[in-house]
């Protein structure tokens, strides 16, 4: 029969869509709730329905897919629940922009028509990111795909709201919230992005009521002073102790406000005197409640000043008001100075407008009671957070948790199930739409116009996606889920909330493990952003280098607790690894009969080479399994990379070529069997990271049924562990590597064969080198190999190396033209010295050091060090060659 060979080149563009379609059609991603296998379950962090695949999605879903594919190979019934989030603000903004192109606003068409338009948009564009996840190879159970606003999840959201309200854990009240004047809605903390901006400290004089002087306060927001209701100082601040209890007069307004003492005040910040604006600052809000201060709202929801700011400022934009207030303070001699600063200011994550802290009537979840159970679950180990360093942050946040604002002033989302009666003050909260007031029975009721925070519905994700509140087979089989893979940025705002909701409504944690991965940054360690122009598009990388190479790169650099520094060159490098696997597989397959079953390896083969590779394979199986069980994705990738490239390909396959192409049928059969069996196991272990190329090769293996997805993860075979074979092969490799290194250092032509002397300390080493001398001849291009004991003199004109207790010498006489080599080295040294001179001169140039970007200067410094090291090596080599030349002449 013709061997079942692979094409010369691997074309991922044809392979990837073919096999993904095949896996889907065969139902390999679908979990069977009736399966007798042990369960493994995971829920996808739902990407926004408006989303496009970015590097964070790519990393997160690659790691999840690795776990799911690995667990299937380990014999688990795997449920990976996919889905998307309705992303209230983001999706509404997208559709509002579409309406704006028609010259309309959502208010022009009304709420009902607008919601219909959003659903239409979702049906047309909402699956873009799902298709991109499939492009990544994500093996989700697409038959169970969910959306946070589908019918089942909407019912779960309503039920949770109603139960929490009746339990007194949801309430409506006036509190300080983050407000976006552009989007006209409250925002969750995670929806506020702190950005460094140029600002100023304005030092303002507040005259004392008794005319005895003034207090100077420093503020970054002088427009808010119009709403000040106190000045606060630290009770132990000697500068102000005598003023506590007195009053000052609010500049520009004339309002009499008290001077109070509170240990919250930082004596070192500004002047140590703090203006207190309870209606427009989170910390001031708490001070206002604590000291019973008035709340004067001088900035409205539209970002303009209210009538309470005074007639001179009412209706003015907040930033225009700032300029006007500063001018008026200057005119009255009340502005002491302005100091330029850099400070962090909260911006809306969607429209990038500066957030305004406002006191607003909103719906809140009372989180303290829920947080206590979430803390206890992690403290008692019911849920692990990995890496462990995030556990401390999780505790700190939950121990200091504030009540959660869950209402949003938009139209797209789960509408709050609360109805207000116009005839009494009763609020009817119900799972079903009521017809009458639950208090007085009036039919004159209206539903709250607000919708729930997107995080509210996603907090139910682990159980709502499995059919809760129905007691479904999925819930019984797969809840709690096995692991959640997520970024650290949503540990508090999503993970902690899922913990609270899961424990409260399911009575158990939503997941046993939380694996927190880091950020993907550019190769300089900078965060990727469009403004920096350093974004690496995963779709472009997959199209350019193939999905397997891209996934392997992400996994190889996914070190726990460390951000990934990614570059296109690294992805290209792992594309070479895909080719290496392909070419190795071609070599193995072209020598196999496609109709003949690969024989099992029973017992240890006689050959050291086969015993060594089978022993190393056992170590790799052990290391890969341990790495994946401990979420050490980089260890999984690097272990296989090292084994496949450096041991299986570079050593083993090279060593057995003589057997494969030789006349000895028995040796050829053993070499074919071992090489194929090792390849088979390697493909299975690589499959979780590189699903496509491994499936393509798997299909060409003789007597392979179905798909690699139905294979079993390799079992460890302790009988094949052979430390002695590994040690002996290690010595053989050292000898060969030593000869190769000398060839490179001495600039010996690759095709030239060399004479080698090996001096052995003990008989076992000598016997080993004699038995496997043919490998040294083949792999190190040796002409004559002289294996001897330590008696006698060492060769004179020879370059040496040490391999264990063996001395290795490459004879150089008649091999090198020493004078020509010395001349070559002189020219090379002069060339590098000139380059070093130019680099050093640049680094001593003050203009260059001042004007050049820091990374450019750093690269020049690194280049200087590198050139210096290169010169030293060249000179050392020159001295060695000069000694050989002298020895050669004297002999």
TrEMBL record:
Gene3D superfamilies, sorted: HUPs, Isoleucyl-tRNA Synthetase, Domain 1, Valyl-tRNA synthetase, C-terminal domain, Valyl/Leucyl/Isoleucyl-tRNA synthetase, editing domain
Catalysed reactions, as listed in the record: tRNA(Val) + L-valine + ATP = L-valyl-tRNA(Val) + AMP + diphosphate
Keyword Nucleotide-binding applies: yes
One GO CC term, this protein: cytosol
Key words of the record: Aminoacyl-tRNA synthetase, ATP-binding, Coiled coil, Cytoplasm, Ligase, Nucleotide-binding, Protein biosynthesis
Tagged with keyword ATP-binding: yes
Domain notes: The C-terminal coiled-coil domain is crucial for aminoacylation activity. ValRS has two distinct active sites: one for aminoacylation and one for editing. The misactivated threonine is translocated from the active site to the editing site.
Name listed for the protein in its UniProt record: Valine--tRNA ligase
Organism in which the protein naturally occurs: Thermodesulforhabdus norvegica
Taxonomic lineage from the root: Bacteria, Pseudomonadati, Thermodesulfobacteriota, Syntrophobacteria, Syntrophobacterales
């Amino acid at each position: 029969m013709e061997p079942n060979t692979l094409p010369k080149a691997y074309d991922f563009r044809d392979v990837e869509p073919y096999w993904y379609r095949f896996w889907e059609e065969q139902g390999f991603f679908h979990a069977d709730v009736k399966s007798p296998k042990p369960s493994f379950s995971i829920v996808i962090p739902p990407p926004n329905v408006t989303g496009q695949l970015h590097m964070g999605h790519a990393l997160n879903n690659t790691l999840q897919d690795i776990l799911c594919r690995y667990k299937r190979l380990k014999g688990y019934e795997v449920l990976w629940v996919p889905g998307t989030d309705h992303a209230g603000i983001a999706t509404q903004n997208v559709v509002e922009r579409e309406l704006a192109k028609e010259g309309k606003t959502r208010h022009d068409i009304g709420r009902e028509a607008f919601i219909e338009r959003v659903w239409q948009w979702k049906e047309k564009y909402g699956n873009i990111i799902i298709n991109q996840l499939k492009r990544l190879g994500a093996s989700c159970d697409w038959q169970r795909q969910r959306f946070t606003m589908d019918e089942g999840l909407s019912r779960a959201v309503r039920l949770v709201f109603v139960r929490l309200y009746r339990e007194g854990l949801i309430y409506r009240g006036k509190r300080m919230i983050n407000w976006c004047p552009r989007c006209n809605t409250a925002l969750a903390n995670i929806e506020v992005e702190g950005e460094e901006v140029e600002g100023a400290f304005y030092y303002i004089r507040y005259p004392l009521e008794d005319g005895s002087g003034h207090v100077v306060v420093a503020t970054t927001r002088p427009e808010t002073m119009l709403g000040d209701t106190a000045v606060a100082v630290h009770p132990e601040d000697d500068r102000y102790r005598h003023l506590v209890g007195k009053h000052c007069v609010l500049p520009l307004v004339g309002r009499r406000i008290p001077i109070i003492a509170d240990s919250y005040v930082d004596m070192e910040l500004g002047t140590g005197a703090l203006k207190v604006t309870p209606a427009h600052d989170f910390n001031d809000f708490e001070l206002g409640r604590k000291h019973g201060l008035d709340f004067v709202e001088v900035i409205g929801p539209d970002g303009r000043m209210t009538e309470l700011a005074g007639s001179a400022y009412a209706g003015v934009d907040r930033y225009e008001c700032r300029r006007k207030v500063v001018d008026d303070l200057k005119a009255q001699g009340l502005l002491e100075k302005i100091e330029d600063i850099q400070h962090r200011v909260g911006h809306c994550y969607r429209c990038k407008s500066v957030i305004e802290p406002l006191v607003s009537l909103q719906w809140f979840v009372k989180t303290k009671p829920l947080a206590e159970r979430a803390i206890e679950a992690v403290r008692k180990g019911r849920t692990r957070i990995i890496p462990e360093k995030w556990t401390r942050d999780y505790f700190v946040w939950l121990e200091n948790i504030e009540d959660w604002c869950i209402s949003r002033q938009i139209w797209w989302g789960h509408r709050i199930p609360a109805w207000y009666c116009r005839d009494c003050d009763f609020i009817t909260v119900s799972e079903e739409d009521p017809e009458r007031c639950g208090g007085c029975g009036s039919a004159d009721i209206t539903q709250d116009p607000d919708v729930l925070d997107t995080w509210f519905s996603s907090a139910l994700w682990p159980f709502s996606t499995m059919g809760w509140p129905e007691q479904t087979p999925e819930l019984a089989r797969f809840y709690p889920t096995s692991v959640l893979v997520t970024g650290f940025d949503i540990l508090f705002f999503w993970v902690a909330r899922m913990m609270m909701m899961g424990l409260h409504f399911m009575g158990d944690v939503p997941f046993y493990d939380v694996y927190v991965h880091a950020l993907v940054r550019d190769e300089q360690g900078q965060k990727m952003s469009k403004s920096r122009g350093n974004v690496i598009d995963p779709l472009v990388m997959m199209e350019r280098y193939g999905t397997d190479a891209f996934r392997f790169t992400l996994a190889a650099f996914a070190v726990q607790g460390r951000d990934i520094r990614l570059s296109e060159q690294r992805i290209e490098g792992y594309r070479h690894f895909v080719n290496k696997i392909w070419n190795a597989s071609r070599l193995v397959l072209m020598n196999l009969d496609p109709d003949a079953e690969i024989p099992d390896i029973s017992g240890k083969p006689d050959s050291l080479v086969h015993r060594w590779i089978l022993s190393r394979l056992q170590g790799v199986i052990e290391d890969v399994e341990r790495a994946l069980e401990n979420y050490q994705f980089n260890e999984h990738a690097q272990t296989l990379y090292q084994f496949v490239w450096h041991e299986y390909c570079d050593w083993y396959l090279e060593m057995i070529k003589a057997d494969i192409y030789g006349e000895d049928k028995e040796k050829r059969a053993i070499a074919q069997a071992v090489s194929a069996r090792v390849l088979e196991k390697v493909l299975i272990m690589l499959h979780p990271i590189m699903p496509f190329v491994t499936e393509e090769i798997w299909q060409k293996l003789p007597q392979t049924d179905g798909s690699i997805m139905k294979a079993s993860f390799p079992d460890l075979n302790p009988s094949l562990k052979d430390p002695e074979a590994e040690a002996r092969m290690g010595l053989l490799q050292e000898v060969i590597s030593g000869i190769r290194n000398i060839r490179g250092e001495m600039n010996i032509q690759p095709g030239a064969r060399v004479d080698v002397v090996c001096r052995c300390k003990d008989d076992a080493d000598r016997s080993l080198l004699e038995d496997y001398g043919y490998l040294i001849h083949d792999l190190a291009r040796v002409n004559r190999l002289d294996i001897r004991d330590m008696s006698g003199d060492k060769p004179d004109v020879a370059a040496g190396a040490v391999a264990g207790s063996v001395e290795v010498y490459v004879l150089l006489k008649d091999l090198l033209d020493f004078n020509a080599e010395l001349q070559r080295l002189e020219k090379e040294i002069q060339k590098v010295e000139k380059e070093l001179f130019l680099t050093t001169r640049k680094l001593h140039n003050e203009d260059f050091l001042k004007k050049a970007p820091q990374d450019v200067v750093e690269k020049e410094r690194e280049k200087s060090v590198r050139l210096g090291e290169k010169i030293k090596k060249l000179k050392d080599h020159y001295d060695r060659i000069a000694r050989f030349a002298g020895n050669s002449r004297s002999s």
